[in-house]
Amino acid sequence: MELLEQIKNAGIVGCGGAGFPTHVKLNCEVEYLIINAAECEPLLRTDRYLMLNAAQEVITTIEKVAKMTKAKKVCIALKETYHDEIASLKEVIEKSGSIVELFLLKNFYPAGDEQIMVLEVTGRTVPPSGIPLDVGAVVSNVATMYSIYEASCDVVFTEKYLTVTGAVQNPIIVKAPLGTSLAQCIEAAGGVTVENYHILIGGPLMGKVYPKEELEQHFVTKTTSGVVIVPDEAHLVKMRETPLRHIQKRAKGSCIQCQTCTQMCPRYLSGHPLSPHKIMRKMAYVNDVTTILNDPDVQEVMTCSECGVCEAYACPMGLAPRQVNIYIKNELRKSGFKYEKDTETTFRYRQDREYRRIPSHRIAARLGVEQYYDYTIRERRTLTPDKVTISLQQHIGAPAEPVVAVGDYVKQGSLIGEIPPKALGARVHASIAGKVTKIENGFVTIEK
């Protein structure tokens, strides 16, 4: 069986981001194969754990993927501060005579953003609304490579490595079956150390924040990179909980048009025409946002990566350009607008980009999570839940269609969700052996 077919059968999706089906993403020929090992968000340590403990498997798999994609240049891009991880990878590369090279990045945010990484490695700017393939590259992360390694050994994607950190007794890496309750992951880390907290799923910049009362509603998925317990008083919680109507009112009344949000925007600095300050300015003069949806400056909002630099670091007035961008994006989608990718222009990064990189530590401090920044995780715990609640949509594209019924008994690895005909999607498999007890609202529940 060819590797691409093994990837599809295993149900692998991008483990570090939105979850694009990997069998589709890697069905290409490229000049550059770039393995993202920078873990874009502060606080997360999952990829670092895998580089230390599964370097041989990762390197072997990268070589197979490089052969499949006919890549001429192959590298792992990781931060120069990852000293132990660099040593671990170098040892395997040197012993095996591997073609894989290491590309060392400065420790800045968002170094792990796919488009920023392509620019760092190749010097080429991915066009607005484009993908790395537009400039001859494809990017996949370390955890995805490890999942491909398992697929090459006929092991389907049923377990996820993730970081559990923040206000917990013992920050750890958890290996959990898909559908495991996040409450069990937190319990494995010794439980929380504060009374009032929010749950951050993902990293502090781009992750989703939920009140502790909603903890039982969330489960491990293929894209869950981490779970961070954040005290209620942390700035990022207050920032995320500000109602949209207040954000809009403050945008109209407090924006001083200093342009710092634009000057620090990673997309703008990479050469894109996105200018957040112009969008904030135009918001200030209207009561109904639909009246400015035809404005070309406003439409550039569709190229925003939602990295959060503008609101978490750049704005001196404490405004939230990202939240404004997200709101306008949704309104544009409702109106049926589709951003047309410019394939004629060669976009080039702005020269001052090198001097506007934001140190990861400083942005963590601005968000109020600095106390959780400097730590090392070496411990891993494997969870064995008696019950899992597995989503049929853990990926970009159409949800998987259930191929089991309530009352069926399944083995670990049994197919429970299939890709709809002619649709973009990914297969879903049972992460534990047991009985299917519920299929409801896009979730399949299995109990031992």
Question: If you had to describe this structure to a student in words, what would you say it looks like?
Answer:
It is built from 17 helices and 19 strands. By secondary structure, it is of the alpha/beta class. Strand 2 (73-79), helix 5 and strand 3 (101-105) form a beta-alpha-beta unit. The chain is globular, with a radius of gyration of 22 Å. Helices cover 31% and strands 19% of the residues. Helix 4 packs across helix 7. The protein folds into 4 domains: 3-152, Rossmann fold (3-Layer(aba) Sandwich); 158-234 and 368-385, Ubiquitin-like (UB roll), CATH 3.10.20; 243-358, no CATH class; 386-448, Beta Barrel (OB fold (Dihydrolipoamide Acetyltransferase, E2P)). It comes from Eubacterium oxidoreducens. GO terms for molecular function: 4 iron, 4 sulfur cluster binding; electron transfer activity; metal ion binding. Keywords: 4Fe-4S, Electron transport, Iron, Iron-sulfur, Metal-binding, Repeat, Transport.
Give structural attributes.
Ubiquitin-like (UB roll), about 450 residues, single chain, metal ion binding, Rossmann fold, Ion_transpt_RnfC/RsxC, alpha/beta, 4 domains
Task: Give the helix/strand layout.
Elements: H1 3-10, H2 22-25, E1 32-36, H3 46-53, H4 55-69, E2 73-79, H5 83-96, E3 101-105, E4 108-109, H6 114-122, E5 137-141, H7 142-152, E6 159-166, E7 172-177, H8 182-188, E8 197-201, E9 208-211, E10 226-231, H9 235-241, H10 244-254, H11 260-263, H12 266-269, H13 276-283, H14 296-299, H15 309-314, H16 321-334, E11 358-359, H17 360-366, E12 380-382, E13 387-391, E14 401-402, E15 409-410, E16 415-418, E17 428-429, E18 434-440, E19 443-447
Parallel strand pairs: 1-2, 1-5, 2-3, 6-10, 7-12
Antiparallel strand pairs: 4-11, 6-7, 8-9, 8-10, 13-19, 14-16, 15-18, 16-17, 18-19
